[in-house]
Amino acid sequence: MDISSNAYEIDYQxxxxxxxxxxxxxxxxxxxxxxxxxxxxxxxxxxxxxLSISYSDKERIPFDLKGVFRWANARTWHYSNPxxxxxFAMFMTKLWRIHPYRExxxxxxxxxxxxxxxxxxxDFNAQILSKHTSYLRNALVLAAVDEASEPQYLxxxxxxxxxxxxxxxxxxxxxxxxxxxxxxxxxxxEYKEKPFKTDFDLK
Length: 203
What we know:
The protein is mainly alpha-helical. The chain has one domain (2-198): Orthogonal Bundle (Fic-like fold), CATH 1.10.3290. Helix content is 44%, strand content 4%. The strands form two sheets. The chain has a two-stranded antiparallel ribbon. The chain has a two-stranded antiparallel ribbon with strand order 2-3. Helix 2 (16-26) packs across helix 5 (105-119), helix 4 packs antiparallel against helix 5 (105-119) and helix 4 (84-98) crosses helix 8. The N and C termini lie far apart (42 Å). Mean pLDDT is 87; it is low at 166-177.
């Protein structure tokens, strides 16, 4: 409710919008809500055989976010864009891969994308993401891999949320993807998120 009442005041063309959303969502849980993390983080991922995504270095977070928003501001966010779902998924992946906060990144980015869609008059069914959080996070992991990324799982979900059909790269006949249960050979419906490791844990 706080997000909805403040949505019209948020500038979605600037990375500070993410900070504001994180602060609204988590100010009652974390004293550092809305502040960028001050440690580097790692998390073994089952779909990556125990490897971690290479999240942004803590010193580069503002710089990396500025680059992502420059990229986004050069795109067309309208149904006339034939690459809308792929661009939307890429924007989400780029933001998520930075992981600017110690906790709450997936929720913050998901809420941002919903509000961003609303601001651009895109009909976005955010319940698809919120009801399938395990699939969403693992899809983001595979889309954010440095080499040989696999964005098709996230593009499928975003295409469904935008109610788009026949998007290039989306295999609509793939029942496993459309059920939001299976990614690669893994059943992600039982996914349990683990805490991040930090620089201090690795010393």
